[in-house]
């Protein structure tokens, strides 16, 4: 049996992109990490460092929109690691490319289910665990995206969910005070992933209806920030943090 790590984390959406980078960085930093996602194959790849499965990684296939599966995820994590110190609420989808006039109810509902209801279910399970464990406390990091502050064109469903993450994070931070639970809204802009590469490779749609290439940054830089956040004492709260590729159209977007 491996020695229980001094701290542990759950990362949702850990099979690809930013989630994969964060999960690997936390493992390298010495955290016990549960990697959650819909497919075990990509999760297993993410849990391997230099091709070798990490001994402090636990893989749990999870659909974050399903409360039963979410509860199972957190139960398995605590069974393995004893407690939960950090939740990285990262699972999300871009949703339909549509303005409000073209947005179909099905696309709206599926985007809300993952980006908002899934985040709420995972945050709720984390809150209950962090509140009752001994010693109480923990850190919840919600992936908000810079769309929580400023939208891209034709992204009404995605943007709405990310604005809602701001309210979710502030409520967790407020209600968690008595239990040493802190919450961070992490707003990321143009971290280099397969999804972002597809979005900007032929030029990203701008507010004036033109398409222009945009700078990107290595997702590993975001992962480094998360590791730093995860390692901070709970007397430190970081309610909101924005990190973007330098020079991308965010400040002054449009």
Automatic annotation (TrEMBL):
Keyword Oxidoreductase: yes
Family affiliation: Belongs to the short-chain dehydrogenases/reductases (SDR) family.
Species whose genome carries this gene: Microbacterium profundi
CDD domains, sorted: SDR_c
Molecular function via GO: oxidoreductase activity
Entry keyword Membrane: no
Domain of life of the organism encoding this protein: Bacteria
Keyword set, alphabetical order: Oxidoreductase
Name of this chain's protein: SDR family oxidoreductase
């Amino acid at each position: 049996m491996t020695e229980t790590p001094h701290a542990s984390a759950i990362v949702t959406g850990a099979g690809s992109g930013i989630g994969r980078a964060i999960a690997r960085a936390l493992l390298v930093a010495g955290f016990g990490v549960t990697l959650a996602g819909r497919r075990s194959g990509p999760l297993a790849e993410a849990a391997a460092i230099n091709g070798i499965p990490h001994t402090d990684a636990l893989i749990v296939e999870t659909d974050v929109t399903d409360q039963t599966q979410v509860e199972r995820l957190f139960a398995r994590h605590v069974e393995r690691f004893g407690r939960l110190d950090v939740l990285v609420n990262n699972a999300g989808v871009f949703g339909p490319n549509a303005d409000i006039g073209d947005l179909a109810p099905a696309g709206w509902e599926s985007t809300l289910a993952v980006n908002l209801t899934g985040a709420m279910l995972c945050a709720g399970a984390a809150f209950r665990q962090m509140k009752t464990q001994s010693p109480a406390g923990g850190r919840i990091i919600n992936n908000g995206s810079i769309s929580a502050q400023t939208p891209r064109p034709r992204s009404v469903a995605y943007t709405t969910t990310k604005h809602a993450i701001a309210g979710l994070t502030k409520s967790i931070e407020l209600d968690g005070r008595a239990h040493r639970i802190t919450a961070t809204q992490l707003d990321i802009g143009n971290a280099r992933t397969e999804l972002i590469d597809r979005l900007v490779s032929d030029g990203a749609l701008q507010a004036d209806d033109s398409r222009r290439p945009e700078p990107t940054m290595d997702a590993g830089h975001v992962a480094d920030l998360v590791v730093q956040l995860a390692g901070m004492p709970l007397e430190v709260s970081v309610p909101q943090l924005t990190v973007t590729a330098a020079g991308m159209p965010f400040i002054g977007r449009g």
